[in-house]
UniProtKB/TrEMBL annotation:
PANTHER family (UniProt xref): ENOYL-[ACYL-CARRIER-PROTEIN] REDUCTASE, ENOYL-[ACYL-CARRIER-PROTEIN] REDUCTASE [NADH], CHLOROPLASTIC
Name of the protein this chain belongs to: Enoyl-[acyl-carrier-protein] reductase [NADH]
InterPro entries linked to this entry: Enoyl-ACP_Rdtase_NADH (IPR014358), NAD(P)-bd_dom_sf (IPR036291), SDR_fam (IPR002347)
Keyword vocabulary terms for this entry: Fatty acid biosynthesis, Fatty acid metabolism, Lipid biosynthesis, Lipid metabolism, NAD, Oxidoreductase
UniProt keyword Amino-acid biosynthesis, yes or no: no
Superkingdom of origin organism: Bacteria
Pathway assignment: Lipid metabolism
Reaction equations catalysed: a 2,3-saturated acyl-[ACP] + NAD(+) = a (2E)-enoyl-[ACP] + NADH + H(+)
Family from the record: Belongs to the short-chain dehydrogenases/reductases (SDR) family. FabI subfamily.
Keyword Transferase assigned: no
Matching CDD domains: ENR_SDR
Listed EC numbers: 1.3.1.9
Length: 256
């Protein structure tokens, strides 16, 4: 029997076949989950639907910066699938100018946008998903973070601040949703060569340094993050909540 047989899993954040969210989607499906994907807008719809067809997965539009869109998404999941056991939040965004230059020069609107999309969207999704997940017997909410939340990664700038807020939100949500049988965790992945990561100034150098310093002397693969996500989403991780789980070849343990 697979880890997620009979489970309904909603994944937000698939952009293309190199997305962490897409790797996670495939891992969830391989473990028996019925996956559901979202796309932000019409511009991204075709890419997501092309990938979704390979897994026979339904797709729905959802802009996580719009409360009404989140409420509509959860109603669609409830009406058409009747349950929700897994929610994967792999969504982050900051304006390009906020990932260049100095953090101290971050504009107010860029800061607001980064925190809204990268952090508050998890809170909004959890709020809307809680009744359906609780009625489904509980489940798992999972989000993606990065070590730049704890230590300065030059160029990561406002996104590091947003990820720090995201990790704090994981702990508060885990506490509040626990009585409903809902676990909330984060995966802190090492630098992966995704579309979003390439927007970070100095990303190539960041990956080189990571591979040199990590105990395993290499960078990680999306598949390693995806398998961890499948485990954390499954009943096998029933006692784990409020955690940040590192999948970074051990980089975070190093002092030098």
């Amino acid at each position: 029997m697979s880890l997620l047989d009979g489970k309904i899993a909603l994944v937000l954040g698939v952009a293309n076949q190199r997305s962490i969210a897409w790797g996670i989607t495939k891992a969830l499906a391989a473990e028996g989950a019925r996956v559901i994907l979202t796309y932000q807008n019409e511009r991204l719809r075709e890419n997501v639907q092309e990938l979704a067809r390979t897994l026979d997965a339904p797709t729905y539009e959802c802009d996580v910066s719009v409360d009404e869109a989140i409420a509509r998404l959860m109603q669609q999941v409830k009406d058409e699938h009747g349950a929700l056991h897994v929610l994967v939040h792999s969504v982050a965004f900051a304006p390009k100018e906020a990932l260049e230059g100095r953090y101290v020069d971050t504009g107010r609107e860029a800061f607001r946008t980064a925190l809204d999309v990268s952090c508050y969207s998890l809170v909004a999704l959890a709020h809307s998903a809680e009744p359906l997940m609780a009625a489904s017997g509980g489940g798992s909410i999972l989000t993606m973070t990065y070590y730049g939340s704890e230590k300065v990664m030059p160029g990561y700038n406002v996104m590091g601040v947003a990820k720090a807020a995201l990790e704090a939100s994981v702990r508060y949500l885990a506490y509040e949703l626990g009585p409903s049988g809902i676990r909330v965790n984060a995966i802190s992945a090492g630098p992966l060569n995704t579309l979003a990561a390439r927007g970070v100034s100095g990303f190539t150098e960041m990956r080189r340094f990571h591979a040199e310093r990590a105990p395993l002397r290499r960078n990680i693969e999306v598949d390693e993050v995806a398998k961890t996500a499948a485990f954390l989403s499954s009943p096998s991780a029933s006692g784990i909540t409020g955690e940040v789980v590192y999948v970074d070849a051990g980089y975070h343990i190093m002092g030098l």
